[in-house]
């Protein structure tokens, strides 16, 4: 795995920590769960495609929505 992919993966998982505090579930989400809003690709697929910024923006939107509840 390249340095960029490692760094981007770490950034996404760090941001996702605020939505899913459980490390195992967060890791499973990253590798296994397709995200409908981003073309039914996994977070891992999006990072590999260079779409980390879009993914983090979505996570931040989810966080903002949860705070508004």
Structure description:
With 69 residues, the protein is an all-alpha fold. Helices cover 67% and strands 0% of the residues. It has helices spanning 3-16, 23-32, 43-48, 52-67. The termini are far apart. The relative contact order is 0.16.
Strand content: under 5%
Structural class: mainly alpha
- Share of residues in helices: 55-70%
Shape verdict? globular
Distance between termini?
A: 38 Å
Features:
single chain; 69 residues; mainly alpha; 4 helices
Ordered list of secondary-structure elements with their pairings:
Elements: H1 3-16, H2 23-32, H3 43-48, H4 52-67
Helix pairs in contact: 1-4
How would you briefly describe this protein structure?
The protein has four helices and no strands.
